[in-house]
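In this section we turn from sequence analysis to structure. A common task in structural bioinformatics is to predict how a protein folds when a small molecule is present, because the ligand can shape the pocket around it. The inputs are simple: the amino acid sequence and a SMILES string for the ligand, here coenzyme A. Study the lines below before reading on.
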Amino acid sequence: MTDDDWEHALGGVHALVWEGEELIGHASVVQRRLLHRGRALRTGYVEAVGVRADRRRRGHAAAMMQALERVVRGAYELGALSAADEAGALYRSLGWQLWRGPTSALTPTGIRRTEEEDGGVYVLPVTAQLDLSGELTCDWRDGHVW
Ligand SMILES: CC(C)(COP(=O)(O)OP(=O)(O)OC[C@H]1O[C@@H](n2cnc3c(N)ncnc32)[C@H](O)[C@@H]1OP(=O)(O)O)[C@@H](O)C(=O)NCCC(=O)NCCS
């Protein structure tokens, strides 16, 4: 993780897995605004999902995501995240849906396409009316924008 990645994970709600006094899993959800169909949707954005390498495939990530899903459903219009290539199966297995349309970012100089993110963004609809084949634009930040 970069320093920006870490900063992106702060300010929201964290889910942690402890084994005794050792932290073996982390995920968090922070508020962002995603623009879609003319609306700025209050979004619970999942960041920094990780399980210690020797403790994977035991359901820890799924448990953290289920805890964060309760936060998303209680407070946001949708959940969203950008999945690492190897993590898409995890989110799909939990009911998150792949965003099929073009992605972009609201940069200081206007909306710019983020082609490299297409096919890697997942959403969890809560109350928002979403067209998964439409455009989805994230708010701006330093570092990895999605
Ligand atoms: C991705 C990661 C968080 C998954 O953590 P985990 O605790 O192993 O995940 P879980 O055991 O809860 O997996 C739940 C389900 O997700 C899917 N899944 C998880 N990891 C998978 C993998 N590597 N390949 C395929 N499916 C996977 C499976 O359906 C799995 O259920 P199963 O084990 O019964 O088949 C972990 O591998 C990790 O920390 N990777 C490095 C960091 C990273 O890529 N984070 C994601 C950033 S978006």
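Residues 60-75 form the longest helix (16 residues). As an exercise, try to locate the residues that line the coenzyme A site and compare them with your own expectations.
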